[in-house]
Amino acid sequence: LEKMTDLVAVWEVALSDGVHKIEFEHGTTSGKRVVYVDGKEEIRKEWMFKLVGKETFTVGVSKTKAAINIDAVSGFAYEYTLEINGKSLKKYMESRLKTTNTWILSLGGTDYRIVLEKDTMDVWCNGQKMETAGEFVEDGTETHFTIGDQSCYIKAVSSGKRKEGIIHTLIVNDREIPEAVE
């Protein structure tokens, strides 16, 4: 099995439904191009005469658009860049920091990754979009959901500062969970 002999790039992409691994094989003698997402082959092209170009595919439950750009740097050297939703991976992750909050916690020996999409108020837990119930409270809103038999909620309160905007806090069993940095 000659699997992964032409592996030239690996990226980790944090989306709401989880962290996805993207691997790219580029055979510069055969022109072969193979894209794997989470270990599953998404694209395979053999004997491509054009060694530069772009491969497009989707990632994750929400079918997020992705593309790998193949550019010649010099001679037989190539550069591979990943784009997510039309932005470079770096720009995409920077904008995601502004539009999502992520928490990592352990409950009863199981690890959970919880993501809040601030624009839609959708809550994701380990790749599943959660059923939520929103409620107005004295100082803001609470978005309630359940993990296993634990009741959880994300509290949204105004920071009182325009630049900071709204502060989101995850509460599980009356305990505040610190936000994770991915």
Describe the protein's architecture and organization.
With about 180 residues, this protein is mainly β. It has two domains: about 5-85, Lipocalin (Beta Barrel); about 95-175, Beta Barrel (Lipocalin), CATH 2.40.128. It is built from one helix and 17 strands. The protein has one helix at about 90-100; strands spanning about 5-15, 20-25, 35, 40-45, 55-60, 65-75, 75-85, 85-90, 100-105, 110-115, 120-125, 130, 135, 140-145, 150-160, 165-170, 175. The strands form four sheets. A five-stranded antiparallel sheet has the order 13-14-15-16-17, with no helix packed on it. A four-stranded antiparallel sheet has the order 1-2-3-4, with no helix packed on it. A four-stranded antiparallel sheet has the order 5-6-7-8. A hairpin with a 2-residue loop joins strand 16 and strand 17 (about 175). It is elongated. The mean pLDDT is about 90. Plays a role as an inducible effector molecule that mediates Fas resistance produced by surface Ig engagement in B cells. Belongs to the FAIM1 family. One of its GO terms (biological process) is negative regulation of extrinsic apoptotic signaling pathway via death domain receptors. Its main location: cytoplasm. This is Fas apoptotic inhibitory molecule 1.
Itemize the secondary structure elements and their pairings:
Elements: E1 7-15, E2 18-26, E3 33-37, E4 40-45, E5 53-59, E6 64-74, E7 77-84, E8 87-88, H1 89-99, E9 100-107, E10 110-117, E11 122-125, E12 128-129, E13 133-137, E14 140-147, E15 150-158, E16 166-172, E17 175-177
Antiparallel strand pairs: 1-2, 2-3, 3-4, 5-6, 6-7, 7-8, 9-10, 10-11, 11-12, 13-14, 14-15, 15-16, 16-17
Subcellular location: Cytoplasm
Pfam families: FAIM1
Function: Plays a role as an inducible effector molecule that mediates Fas resistance produced by surface Ig engagement in B cells.
